[in-house]
Batch of 2 targets.
Target 1
Amino acid sequence: MAGRLTMYTTTWCGYCTRLKSGLQRAGIDYDEINIEEDPTAEAFVLEANGGLATVPTLVLPSGEVMTNPPLPLLLAALQPA
């Protein structure tokens, strides 16, 4: 992978916690950005999700954006083409 996986989260998001645990079990490294602490990150998430602050929002190394994906779908998207 050329870049790293980036996950936009909040501290209270159960979906974020579950997805982070799944990624850790799968051995996938990622950068985490809390949108409650970073206004620029919050603006990105709002833009990516039609004005909704939906997390987890992920940016894959390819640049593709996924919102709250199931772990198997995310893992498949991270596989090399």
Target 2
Amino acid sequence: MLKTRSWVKKRVKVTWTGKFKVAQSFKKHLLSNKSKKAKWRNKYGLVLSWVEKNKIKAQLPFA
């Protein structure tokens, strides 16, 4: 029986086109020291590369 990894389910979102998005780092605290441009770049998260996509796909069998 295939099981979904709980940590992946909580941290990775699947887009409509089948890509995987994760939260971008460096945007939780100490934001007053960062420029507006740096905060804007981190706004929408990070799309994973095809290498990481294969690893995540194995851990999310029903996505």
